[in-house]
Design a protein that fits this description.
Blueprint lengths: L8 H10 L6 E4 L6 H7 L5 E4 L2 E3 L4 E2 L5 E4 L7 E4 L7 E4 L6 E3 L1 E4 L14 E4 L4 E3 L2 E3 L2 E2 L6 E4 L4 E3 L2 E3 L2 E2 L6 E4 L5 E3 L2 E3 L9 E4 L5 E3 L2 E3 L2 E4 L3 E4 L4 E3 L2 E3 L2 E5 L3 E4 L4 E3 L2 E3 L2 E2 L6 E3 L6 E3 L2 E3 L9 E4 L5 E3 L2 E3 L16 E3 L2 E3 L2 E4 L3 E4 L3 E5 L2 E3 L2 E5 L3 E3 L4 E5 L2 E3 L7 E3 L5 E4 L2 E3 L38 E2 L20 E3 L8 H7 L2
Parallel strand pairs: 1-2, 2-5, 3-6, 4-7, 5-8, 6-9, 7-10, 8-11, 9-12, 10-14, 11-15, 12-16, 13-17, 14-18, 15-19, 16-20, 18-21, 19-22, 20-23, 21-25, 22-26, 23-27, 24-28, 25-29, 26-30, 27-31, 28-32, 29-33, 30-34, 31-35, 33-36, 34-39, 35-40, 36-42, 40-44, 41-45, 42-46, 43-47, 44-48, 46-49, ...
Antiparallel strand pairs: 37-38
Amino acid sequence: MEAPRPISLALAALLAACAPALAATIHVPGEQPTIQAGIDAASLGDTVLVASGTYYEYDIVMKSGVCLTSETGLPDCVTIDAQEFGRVIYCLDVDAAASIVGLTMTGGRAPALEDSVGGGIYCEDSSPTLANCTVSGNTAGLAGGGICCVNSSLRLTNCTFSGNTAGFTGGGVFCYLNSDPTLTNCTFSGNSSYEGGGMCSLMGGFPTLTGCLFTDNTAYDGGGMIAFISWPELTDCTFLGNTASSVGGGMTSSESMPTIIDCDFFENSATEFGGGLRVGANELATITGCRFRDNSAERGGGVGVHSEGNRTLADCSLSRGFDKDARGAAVPREAIFTSCTFARNEASYGGGLLCDDEEDVTLANCTFCRNSASNAGGGLYCDNLATARLLNSIIAFGEGGGAVGCSGGDNATLYCCDVYGNAGGDWVDCIAGQGTIEDNFSEDPLFCFDHNLEWPLMLRIDSPCTSDSNPACGLVGAWGVGCDTPVEAISWGSIKAMFR
């Protein structure tokens, strides 16, 4: 029998967290020849400690109350390669005391049946913890190339999902049927699917994502993520360089109630609609303090709002309502955008944002800068009887298409707004004549940075958009005073750190 390897202090702490006192540690391959054999030999509270190396196993069945971990707790230590013979790990009725730590899981393939879901990991009625894991290069014919969770509440921390594929939805992660996963500091990179290249939440789930990154994922709809009939909560997440061949380059939300706070949508693209974010038939969504930069689409470069019924985009946060929320409480039919920034987005119509299909849109305390539309509406465009109401917002330095455009009629109304320096015209199209009414004005907003530098768009102390300069309206735009005089650019990460 191989002698047990020394255990580091860090790993000792990890094992203490995994298992209670008097629990056993089973070494693989020292005491058991395979990972499955180690799990089979384990009892409630035991730890299966896997030595460094690559293990060619598949359809490993996880057990409740067991901690499966590599000897270092890091994913580059142990790789489980299923070699496409089956899934890597299978969890059924696995409890919250189970955990999987520091493993790379690859080469998984879901069975080629109607339920071809969960190529890397399949979880049903389970709630294990995954930490410091990499799930890469797994495949499912239908959904959840990396992970499929059904009626499950996984906790995922510092995990990476890369290069996973699914034939229909959720290339990296697929959550279905009241699944409530919690994801913290997870990365989705290079995953692909027809819908939700990185992740899909479907049918009644409450996924919570904090500090997650979606980058270089691809799909037809929802390049980074798609939420459909679910209630996702995203905080401080980043959607960077995702692509959709139809709609929702960064993310699509449809018939859902998402809460999106302080998230960045940068350099995403969609062929048709909503380069950064596409909002479909949503009922109550809240998008607060988000930033949309360098996104592109045919319609709605930064954001595209496209669905039936009336919605309100207020304060740069979005929300439209079901008659009742998931817990049965009545909710209003409205949409709310709060303190968002749209910069350097591009489209044919609606460089910053486009609303469509009889939408009733309200934008308050938003800042639009250097957006562009080749046809109309560099900042904002209203189409197909959609109407827009803008409050305390800045639309400045647009590079084409005019500040606001409409497909017909006077269906955009501005209050306490500063519209200035747009190459296609300021008070033109459907907002012509509004520049001298409702406390609107047209003055250089005097950002701290040269307006060619999109972040941040805080105001100089002498800006006409500050509360002191404009007491009748209060603050105009998404950002307050940030400097006395113009200053040199600093990194966006440094700016975000100022507000933590």
